Description:
Elements: H1 5-15, E1 18-23, E2 29-32, H2 47-68, H3 75-88, H4 90-94, H5 97-103, H6 107-113, E3 119-120, E4 123-124, H7 126-139
Antiparallel strand pairs: 1-2, 3-4
Amino acid sequence: xxTSQKGVSLIKSFEGLRLVAYQDSVGVWIxxxxxxxxxxxxxxxxxxxxxxxxxxxxxxxxxxxDRLVKVPLNQNQWDALMSFTYNLGATNLGxxxxxxxxxxxxxxGTAEQFLRWNKxxxxxxxxxxxxxxxxxxxxxxxx
Length: 143
């Protein structure tokens, strides 16, 4: 399965577009639509470069989701998992109760697990809370 435009739009809506590198709330350098690989202080990119970085990162995470998820997914579920994985990484998905419940075919339990991932540096962040609520809604079939 591939990430749909709805999934890409969800990621973009929460990551925002920044053409100059900045540090997030826990000190990670970020640029574009949330890209972190190879980002350093003072780095600048164009909007086209940000788009390519986003697509490259999505393409990098799609095989991870394919490998980790052992049950059928619909497009909304896939897109919600992509947003989650894009933000938190495949390692966090792989070790999560969210994935364990999903692979035991507990879709309702899986949906509730999204809401637990709303902290950075031990602090609840309103932006992460909104993102996890949107991912949960999409996973359950909403827009």
